[in-house]
Design goal:
The complex is a heterodimer of chains A (428) and B (303). With 428 residues, chain A is α/β, with parallel strands linked by helices. In chain A, 50% of the residues lie in helices and 18% in strands. In chain A, the strands form four sheets. In chain A, strands 1, 2, 3, 4, 7, 15 and 16 form a seven-stranded mixed sheet that branches. The longest helix of chain B is centred in the N-terminal third of the chain and has 34 residues. The chains are: A alpha/beta (428), B mainly alpha (303).
């Protein structure tokens, strides 16, 4: 009895020491936390990237935490404000002004010089310059294109892909099917709350000869003659029987238009390259992608380009900051960016990789990449409020028969106020 | 100074009271900490420009209240909330009494019928909201298909800024009805049989029994139903958020309630100070209405 007790004690002590030693070895390790929203393919590839990185840097340990996309920004913002949350975080570029303005993110100039960022990422980078400084690293770029249901096109006898907006509109009219006033299949499912507010500002307004805002991003200028014509064209897609509100097809979804397309209830949608994954996974029909149309043959090509950035938060200080910088450099390395493209299907922010010949020839990625040189990134002082301004304006015309000109003026005034408030707040 | 002789013994009643207070202390502490403290701090928060992302949250007096007074969306939410209450409370009260009277009258499968009427109340709001949404969908919903068969025009229901609010109110009434029925069944059961028997011996008609015996004696239940119902409708949230999930409070803010707006201001715009100010206003309104209802509706009825 006694002997076994002694042995037991000895074992326990030995174990205790080992644990102590092990934990001491652990404390030498810098642990950083990485947050991104939950998206299966992104989470998986990030696990591989982190494993490789941890192996190459035994003194650093990166941990990943994920949250649902709905409410992700709220979670990040409130956690950082409370001094908790991630050291490295994945953010939409449209959120960067708010985060930068509130001092929640940082990007050491010495490690990431402005010149090399501009050279690597190109003009889209401009929308992340706040107070003359960059605040985060772009990693994945998205542009818009038209997804179309090949089977519905075939059934409607459309053989030529639309090149102009009028061609798109008449193709959509041929596809749209109604039964006793109820839309069964929409030619085009619209979503001003989805990508269409971008489409309006950066594509339609410019193609109709207007400018959405001034070069310094301080004045909204789409409430012009050209802007109004573009606005009327967009709204008219519904009344001419070419399109339906996505929300009228799938009201319970935040991505109503895309769900309608995946369910075979829409011939076309205008969506970003980030939608490729869910459409590939969900659509049970032949589908393809074509480039955004132009106003007239040979007319101005334009696109909305957005990007996701990786940023260091204000939580990362000292050794954590150094580890975070290392991790960010690894994330933006060519090898990782190529892996990301292959596994997630997101176009790398690095222009050299994005304009790669194999990517340009890809039937799905090609149309997105082709217009990358013509893409504009809107500066969002408050993405949610600016989106809502255009969304409400469109709904007021579609649902309450409001005057298009008045609705556009209202949207412009609302967006202007968002800008004014923002610029007033960062001056302080 | 002569020390006062300390009384070491308490009477039985005193000791009982002390123990009662000791036991009350625990729930009281909980109530103070979890209910009153946050309520009070939201009152203080409403006087600040409080945003969680900043370190300094300046005191701005009544500025938040001035801002919400000038905010068209706030007024829209306010009017919507009052409309919900004005439509919903009488509707669920009348339907509750009617169904309770009928359920009281049946003899067979009593339990089954009661269970059926109570079911919506215990079904998760999210699930029933989604079912209502798909039933009333303007393009694919079975209700509109029925309308077509009957030769009636399609109705957009939740998709129309004009029809969405009454449609949501109907959904909430349907969902709350089970609770109202149980309430009124209990109220009806509590009416002494002797009154009803005396009335029938005197040759009173069914209507007379209802009008002069059941209804007056149901008054406490009605007061309770109105107060609970009003508070519920004034705080309406989950049903609104889930019915148009892709456009919460929409279309065009037509279904937006004050509670949903508070949530949006607080957790989407992160203007905590402003959201607290709206909370204070809502609290004031509920308090006023409840006090008013209790005073006006509570008439003692005795036979």
């Amino acid at each position: 009895m006694r002997k076994s007790l002694k042995v037991g004690l000895a074992l326990a002590t030995a174990f205790g020491f080992t644990v102590l030693l092990a934990s001491q070895a652990q404390t030498a390790k810098v642990s950083i936390t990485y947050w991104q929203y939950a998206f299966d393919s992104k989470v998986k590839i990030m696990n591989t990237i982190m494993a490789d990185f941890n192996k190459a840097n035994p003194d650093i340990e990166v941990k990943q935490e994920n949250f649902p996309y709905d409410g992700f920004i709220q979670k990040v913002e409130s956690s950082l404000a409370a001094g908790q949350g991630p050291d490295v975080v994945n953010l939409f570029y449209g959120w960067v002004p708010q985060f930068a303005g509130n001092g929640l993110i940082q990007l050491p100039e010495a490690d990431f010089p402005a010149k090399s960022l501009e050279a690597n990422v190109g003009p889209l980078m401009k929308a992340s310059k706040i107070n003359g400084k960059y605040w985060a690293l772009p990693t994945a770029v998205r542009t818009l294109a038209v997804f179309y249901n090949k089977d519905l096109f075939k059934a409607a006898g459309i053989t030529k892909l639309p090149k102009t907006w009028n061609e798109l509109s008449s193709a959509a009219q041929k596809i749209q099917k109604t039964d006793a006033g109820k839309i069964q299949i929409a030619g085009l499912a619209l979503a001003p709350q989805g990508q269409d507010h971008h489409l309006f500002r950066e594509v339609l307004v410019r193609q109709w000869g207007g400018k959405p805002y001034t070069a310094d991003y301080k004045k909204i200028t789409y409430n012009s003659e050209a802007g109004l014509e573009a606005w009327k064209f967009y709204l008219g897609l519904v009344s001419s029987g070419a399109a339906a509100r996505g929300l009228d097809l799938f009201p319970a979804s935040t991505n109503a238009y895309r769900d309608a397309f995946i369910a075979g209830r829409a011939g076309m949608i205008i969506d970003g390259s980030f939608a490729i994954g869910s459409i590939r996974g969900g659509a049970k029909f032949n589908w393809g992608v074509f480039e955004l149309p132009v106003k007239e043959a040979g007319g101005l090509r334009s696109n909305f380009g957005s990007y996701w950035v990786h940023g260091l938060t204000r939580n990362a200080t000292g050794a954590k900051l150094a580890a975070g910088v290392k991790f960010l450099k690894y994330l933006t390395s060519e090898k990782v960016q190529r892996d990301w493209l292959a596994n997630v299907g997101e176009i790398p922010a690095n222009t050299k990789l994005a304009t790669d010949a194999t990517l340009r020839k890809d039937p799905i990625f090609g149309p997105f990449v082709a217009t990358l040189p013509f893409a504009h990134a809107t500066f969002f002082a408050n993405e949610a409020d600016q989106r809502k301004a255009i969304w409400d304006a469109a709904d007021s015309v579609w649902l309450t028969k409001a005057d298009p000109a008045k609705s556009l003026a209202q949207a412009a005034a609302t967006e202007q106020k968002v800008y004014d408030d923002y610029f007033a707040s960062i001056k302080k | 100074m002569t020390p006062k002789p300390s009384r070491k013994t308490f009477s039985l009643a005193q000791r009982q009271a002390i123990w009662a207070y000791v036991f009350l202390l625990v729930p009281m502490a909980f109530f103070l900490l979890v209910r009153l403290y946050p309520a009070f701090s939201s009152l203080l928060l409403s006087l600040r420009d409080y945003r969680p992302s900043r370190e300094v949250n300046p005191f701005i007096g009544l500025k938040n209240f001035q801002d919400i007074a000038a905010d068209a969306v706030f007024w829209r939410a306010m009017i919507n909330t009052l409309l919900y209450t004005v439509i919903g409370v009488p509707a669920q009260l009348i339907l509750g009494i009617l169904v309770a009277l009928m359920l009281q009258g049946i003899n067979k499968a009593k339990g089954l019928f009661r269970a059926i009427y109570f079911m919506p109340y215990v079904t998760p709001i999210v699930a029933s909201a989604w079912v209502w949404q798909s039933f009333l969908n303007q393009n694919f919903g079975p209700i509109n298909q029925l309308f077509t068969l009957l030769g009636l025009p399609n109705q957009p229901f939740f998709a129309s800024p004009y029809q969405a609010l009454p449609s949501v109110a109907a959904f909430v009434v349907w969902q709350q009805l089970g609770f109202q029925i149980v309430l009124f069944l209990a109220g009806l059961e509590a009416i002494p049989r002797t009154y009803l028997e005396a009335a029938s011996l005197d040759g009173a008609s069914g209507w007379q029994v209802f009008r002069y015996i059941k209804l007056p004696l149901l008054n406490p239940t009605i007061v309770f139903s109105v107060v609970i119902g009003t508070t519920g409708f004034l705080q309406l949230f989950a049903q609104v958020v889930n019915i148009n999930f892709g456009d919460q409070g929409g279309p065009l803010n037509s279904t937006l309630t004050v509670a949903v707006y508070i949530y949006k201001v607080a957790f989407q715009d992160f203007k905590m100070g402003r959201a607290s100010a709206i909370t204070v206003v809502l609290f004031g309104i509920i308090l006023l209405i409840t006090v008013f209802q209790l005073r006006v509706l509570r008439r003692r009825v005795d036979y």
